[in-house]
Amino acid sequence: MKPEIHPKYYKTKAICACGAAYDIGSTKEKIHVDICSNCHPLFTGKQKLLDIEGRVQKFKKKYAGVTPKAKKPVKKSAKGGSASGGKKLPAKKAPK
Ligand SMILES: [Zn+2]
After folding, report:
1. Could you give the 3-state DSSP secondary structure of residue 37?
2. pLDDT tens, residue by residue, 22-65
3. Rounded CA gap, 86 and 94, in Å?
4. Is residue 80 pLDDT above 60, yes or no?
5. Is 18 marked within a binding site?
6. 16 is in an annotated binding site
7. 21 alpha carbon to ligand 1 midpoint, in Å?
């Protein structure tokens, strides 16, 4: 290797949020990851909710008293006839 052009290479550990640690080689001294093959749903086969920074709690708190409403029919605007989505509607507008 050519001297003084390569970054320092560390024998370090990649530490996951689940607690698993992996011995790896890297140019970074410390590596912390949120997810690894030990805890990722793809490898564990379990559903897991990734709650980073309490987003799920925040959502539940925000919509605690809200119940989903029945779907309202979409009002067609008077302007622009292309909003009908290709369906033929009966002409209600009186011609000028
Ligand atoms: Zn993990």
Report:
1. coil
2. 999 999 999 999 999 988 888 888 766 666 667 778 888 888 88
3. 21
4. no
5. yes
6. yes
7. 8
Q: Is 39 annotated as a binding residue?
A: yes
Predicted model pTM: 0.43
Could you give the domains of the chain?
1-46 (4.10.80.400)
- Tell me the C-alpha distance between 66 and 83, whole Å: 30
Q: For residue 34, what are the contacts with CB-CB under 8 A and spacing of at least 6? A: 16, 17, 50, 52
Residue 54 and residue 35: Cα distance in Å, rounded? 16
Please tell me the distance between residue 26's alpha carbon and the centre of ligand 1 in angstroms: 18
Annotated binding residue 36: yes
Residues 43, 33, 6: CA angle, nearest 5 degrees: 115
CA distance 14 to 33: 7
Q: What single letter denotes the amino acid at residue 47?
A: Q
